[in-house]
Amino acid sequence: MGARISRQQLRRKGTLARPGLPRSTVAVGISGGVDSAVAAMLLKERGHDVFGVFMRNWDESEEKGNENCSVEADLAQAKSVCHHIGIPLHEVNFVRQYWTQVFSDFLAQCEAGVTPNPDLACNRHIKFGALLDHCKGLGADKVATGHYAQIARCSQSGQLQLLRGLDPLKDQSYFLASVHGQSLADVVFPLGRMRKEQVRSLAQERGIPSALRQSSAGICFIGRREFGDFISDYTAPVAGHYVDVDTGSVLGPCANMLALTLGQGSRISGLSTRMYVAGKDMQQRIVYVAAGPDHPALYTHTAALQEAHWIAGEAPEQMRSTGSMECSFKARYRQVPELCSVSMPGRASGCTPSAFTRLESNWSAPGASVAFAAPARAITPQQAFVMYSGEEALDCDELVYAVGGS
């Protein structure tokens, strides 16, 4: 499984480039889905030496109720795809690394009452860390995936830039923003300039087996299950009470505070109005809720961030010279980018913790403060906060706290 792939093997598979075309050996992370399949096909058609790598990141032997994340079904599809394209497929097991570098921290953060996103840690430590190293050991010059994002190099500074994918509905730069900039030098995103419908259409034209396969939903190890059902298998529930932010009245019991996140709708027995989570006080075991999805308590004007991870290795020149900058941001994957100003370092005047959110963790002093151009909804502790300049992703940070709405 760990043997280096020889040029003879690639030649037998018909993946060597035609004479006259630039050529490199590219390992493609094959998941069994249509995106990675088309990425591999495009690279082969462009004349590169291509081989696939299938990762086992999650041990589902004790899993129950997750029909969306079947490793064996994915592997069977990956084998079918690679056979159709005419490239070899290697398997690699990263279950131990995933557990120690991604999942253990994810659970610890959930138990602290925050809302982490393990997909960013997976990309940083596994796909563009462990996988990248493994593929180089197999003889790859580059590693490619089916992510909808782009990589460019600044003509002036020579620094690598992570850019949004062309398809605004599929852009995945948010999930890639915590990857080390130097790792991106060895990465290729063939789908960055394509739209999802183009990818599916091309897959159907070429007869790729996964052309019509349903896209995965959410985090793989959770799949299509409710988050509360999943997290209860790994953590002890933390019971609490719902409290109305307007009246201070106790509205009823909450079976598990860990299953809730800010902005989420919550059905409370006996109420005809749908309530939304405005904050969690993990010390007092209170879930603050507000009536309606647009209640002021769900919005904030400022937020504090932990230490920044600048993709280029350093802050933009404006930030370095003035200590602040204007940019756009995404605090969730599906969010439409909005405008803000970021100030570094340290605490800005008036940026204090929300009255509705108190966590058990002892956060360090924030490394930056954010002022939103318009009130921002459901800014959630420990979610990734990605800053953009135009199409370029600049930084990935983690939210410490936000000021509650009026």
From TrEMBL:
Superkingdom classification of source: Eukaryota
Keyword terms of this UniProt record: ATP-binding, Disulfide bond, Nucleotide-binding, RNA-binding, Transferase, tRNA processing, tRNA-binding
Reactions catalysed according to its record: 5-taurinomethyluridine(34) in tRNA + S-sulfanyl-L-cysteinyl-[protein] + AH2 + ATP = 5-taurinomethyl-2-thiouridine(34) in tRNA + L-cysteinyl-[protein] + A + AMP + diphosphate + H(+)
InterPro entries attached to this UniProt entry: MnmA-like (IPR004506), MnmA-like_central (IPR046884), MnmA-like_central_sf (IPR023382), Rossmann-like_a/b/a_fold (IPR014729)
Gene3D superfamilies, alphabetized: Adenine nucleotide alpha hydrolases-like domains, HUPs, Translation factors
One Pfam family in the UniProt entry: tRNA_Me_trans
SUPFAM superfamilies noted in UniProt: Adenine nucleotide alpha hydrolases-like
tRNA-specific 2-thiouridylase MnmA-like central domain boundaries: 229-290
Enzyme Commission (EC) number: 2.8.1.14
PANTHER family per UniProt: MITOCHONDRIAL TRNA-SPECIFIC 2-THIOURIDYLASE 1, TRNA 5-METHYLAMINOMETHYL-2-THIOURIDYLATE -METHYLTRANSFERASE
Family statement: Belongs to the MnmA/TRMU family.
Role noted for this protein: Catalyzes the 2-thiolation of uridine at the wobble position (U34) of mitochondrial tRNA(Lys), tRNA(Glu) and tRNA(Gln). Required for the formation of 5-taurinomethyl-2-thiouridine (tm5s2U) of mitochondrial tRNA(Lys), tRNA(Glu), and tRNA(Gln) at the wobble position. ATP is required to activate the C2 atom of the wobble base.
Protein name according to UniProt: tRNA-5-taurinomethyluridine 2-sulfurtransferase
